[in-house]
Amino acid sequence: MISTPTALSIAQELLRCPSVTPADAGALGVLETLLKAAGFEVHRVTFSEVGTADIDNLYARIGTSAPHICFAGHTDVVPPGDDGAWTHGAFDGEVADGLLYGRGAVDMKGGIACAVAATLDYLAANGGQPQQSGKGSISFLITGDEEDVAVNGTVKLLQWAAERGEQFDHCIVGEPSNVEAIGDTIKIGRRGSQSGVLIVDGTQGHVAYPHRAANPVPDIARLITALNDEPLDAGSAQFQPSNLEFTSVDVGNPATNVIPAQARAKFNIRFNDHHTQETLRALVDQRLAAACGNRIRARIEWLPSNADVFVTKPGAFTDLVSASIAEVTGRTPDLNTGGGTSDARFIAKYCPVVEFGLVGQTMHQIDERTPVSDLDKLTAIYRGVLERYFA
Ligand SMILES: [Zn+2]
Question: How much is the mean pLDDT over the chain?
C-alpha cells in the first residue's frame, strides 16, 4: 500500500504558510496538491466585494453520488501578536516535547490536516473511492476568510456550490470544539444572536413645566423592567433558556433642567430553537406594545444579524461521530450548543452539521499549540467517521 502523508506533516506545511487573514500565502495550494493527487476534482474560487480584499477559497470533491460528507473549515489565521513572545516561531511549524507550535495549530489548520490525512488514508485503503461500489462522495469546503470580516468566504462558497448542483448530506467543521481533552465536546448547534435598540419618544421641555413635556426616562425604565421580567422561554432539549440582556441606557442629555426628547437602550438576545429571528422579533415587539399601552410611544430598531439559531438534533449522524470518538478516546462527548457563533451556522442552512476538532485552549493565543498525539487521535476519529459513514 502507498503510504499517505501524516496529519503532522500536512499541518506543518500549512503552518509554514503565514496566512494571516486575508492572506492565503500558499495554504490552499498545499491542500490542492494533496487532494488532486488523490483524485479529487479541485476548484479554486475567488470572491470579491468592494471595500474588502479578494479571497481565495477551495472546493474539492471525490465521487459524484450520495451519500456525501463534507469537511469544512478555514485556512486563514489571526495575527500572531508579538512574534518575539513565541517560544517557537508562529510560522515555523516546530515540534518540541511532543507539541506542535504555530498560529493555526488548533484553529484550525491542525483540524484540516487531520481531515485530509484521514481521508487520504481511508481512500488508499478503499481502492481510491469512498465506497467500493463507486458510490458516495467526500468533499472539502475550505475558505480563506473566516477570522475577519468573512464576506468572501463560506456564505458565498456555499451559494457557489449550490448553483453548480452540489448537495451535501452531512458536514463536519473542524473548529476546535473540545474544552479540556480531545473527545469531550461536539458542538451540535449554537444559539442565535439578535441585537436591538429600544427607543422611547417623549416631548422635550423645561423641568419646571413638566405638564408641557413628556419624560421618556421613567418610561424606558418601566419598559426595560417589563421586557426583562418575562422569560422568553424555559429552554429546550438542546439549549439553555433564551436571554435578553440590556447593555446600555442612553439619554445623551448634559442638562439637569431639561426633560429629554428621547431615551434609548441597547440590548442583545441569545436565543434558542424555540424561536427564529422573525418570530423572536415579533414576540418582543408584541410584548413591548403590551407594556406601552396607549400612553408610551416606543419602538425597537432591530439591528441586522446573520446569526440565526441552528441545531443538528442528536440522531444517527451524531451517534456515528460519538462512536468514533469513543472508540479512539474512550470518552463520551457532550453534545453542546454553548459559546459564540461560527461558520457552521451558514452550513446548517444546507445540511446537518457538527463541529468537532482539536482542543481549543490555546486558540488565538501566543504559543498556540497542540499535542502531536491529539493530531493522531483526531485523524483516527475522522477516519472512523468515514468508515462508519460509508459502511
Ligand atoms: Zn476557527
Answer: 95
74 is in an annotated binding site: yes
How confident is the model at residue 15, as a pLDDT?
Answer: 98
Distance from residue 364's CA to the centre of ligand 1 (Å): 9
Amino acid identity of residue 339, one-letter, is G
pLDDT at 151: 85
Q: Give the active site residue among 146, 308, 368, 374.
A: 146
DSSP state for residue 125 in the 8-state scheme: H
Does 166 participate in catalysis according to the annotation? no
What cell numbers appear for 199 in the block?
427607543
How far does the centroid of ligand 1 lie from the alpha carbon of residue 324, in Å? Answer: 22
CA of 274 to the centre of ligand 1 (A): 27
Q: What superfamily does domain 7-190+309-389 belong to in CATH?
A: Zn peptidases (3.40.630.10)
Contacts of residue 80, defined as CB under 8 A and 6 or more positions apart, other chains included, come to: 20, 86, 90, 91, 103, 366
Using the mean position of ligand 1's atoms as its centre, give its distance from the Cα of residue 105 in Å: 10
C-alpha span between 319 and 316 (Å, rounded): 5
Q: Which CATH architecture has domain 192-302?
A: 2-Layer Sandwich (3.30)
Report the C-alpha gap between 271 and 287 in whole angstroms. Answer: 16
Q: Is 107 assigned to a binding site? A: yes
Interhelix angle for 109-125 vs 27-37, to 10°?
Answer: 10
Q: Where do the domains of the chain lie?
A: 7-190+309-389, 192-302
In which residue ranges of the chain is pLDDT below 50?
Answer: 1
- Asked if 7-190+309-389 and 192-302 have one fold, the answer is no
For 132-174, write each residue's pLDDT tens digit. Answer: 898 999 999 999 988 877 788 999 999 999 999 999 999 999 9
Distance from the alpha carbon of residue 14 to the mean position of ligand 1, in angstroms: 14
Tens of pLDDT, residue by residue over 253-281, are 999 999 999 999 999 999 999 999 999 99
Is residue 13 among the annotated active site residues?
no
Residue 308: what pLDDT? 87
Q: What is the pLDDT of residue 365?
A: 96
Per the residue annotation, which of 13, 56, 76, 273 is the catalytic one? 76
The residue written with cell numbers 480584499 in the block is 53
Q: Is 184 annotated as a binding residue?
A: no
